[in-house]
């Protein structure tokens, strides 16, 4: 699964197209913010490593400079839940982040520019995201 359809399915942000276009498409439709809230979509800018951009859904707030995200295809063909993302921007405004890289079990060394956070009308809780993720990947939630 690609990141954009996955983020749309679990966040309620009804945008389509490449992830790199979501920030612009959200203008006038959704609140665009510089601070994370659970259920918001973190929109990554296009770069040479992310030519289509990237989107991830905020699943937890850890501190002013750290969140957890649930996302698809950060690791090729995988959905990853509650992965750390750290704000490394000089102004503490979430415009540059580092992201956990599961293959090495730590934050990756690359810095990724972001636009900010797109807030759905009704942000999903962590538990709602979990159930939606199971549904999207075709797994039944345990009782």
CATH topology: endopeptidase fold (from Nostoc punctiforme)
**Unreliable residue stretches:** none
Measured distance between first and last alpha carbons: 26 Å
| Total helical elements | 3
N to C succession of SSEs: HHEEEEEEEEH
Number of separate domains? 1
- Going across the major beta sheet, what is the strand order? 2-3-4-5-6-8
Detailed description of the structure:
By secondary structure, the chain is α+β, with helices and mostly antiparallel strands. It has one domain (3-137): endopeptidase domain like (from Nostoc punctiforme) (endopeptidase fold (from Nostoc punctiforme)), CATH 3.90.1720. Helices cover 18% and strands 34% of the residues. It is built from 3 helices and 8 strands; from the N terminus they run H-H-E-E-E-E-E-E-E-E-H. It has helices at residues 3-11, 22-26, 126-137, and strands spanning 31-33, 41-44, 54-63, 66-72, 79-87, 96-101, 106-107, 112-119. It has a 6-stranded antiparallel beta barrel with strand order 2-3-4-5-6-8. Strand 5 (79-87) and strand 6 (96-101) form a beta hairpin. Helix 1 (3-11) packs across helix 3. The longest helix is centred in the C-terminal third of the chain and has 12 residues, at 126-137. The chain is globular. It starts with a helix and ends in a 6-residue tail after the last helix. 35% of the residues are buried. The model has no long low-confidence stretch (mean pLDDT 94).
């Amino acid at each position: 699964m690609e990141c954009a359809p996955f983020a749309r399915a679990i966040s309620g942000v009804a945008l389509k197209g490449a992830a790199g276009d979501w920030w612009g498409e959200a203008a006038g439709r959704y609140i665009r913010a510089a601070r994370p809230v659970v259920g918001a979509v973190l929109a990554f800018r296009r770069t040479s490593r992310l030519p289509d951009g990237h989107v991830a859904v905020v699943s937890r707030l850890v501190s002013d400079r750290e969140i957890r995200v649930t996302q698809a295809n950060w690791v090729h063909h995988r959905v990853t839940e509650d992965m750390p993302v750290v704000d490394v921007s000089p102004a503490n405004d979430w415009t540059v982040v580092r992201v956990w890289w599961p293959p090495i079990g730590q934050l990756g060394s690359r810095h990724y520019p972001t636009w900010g956070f797109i807030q759905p009308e009704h942000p999903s809780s962590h538990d709602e995201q979990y159930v939606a993720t199971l549904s999207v990947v075709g797994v039944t939630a345990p009782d």
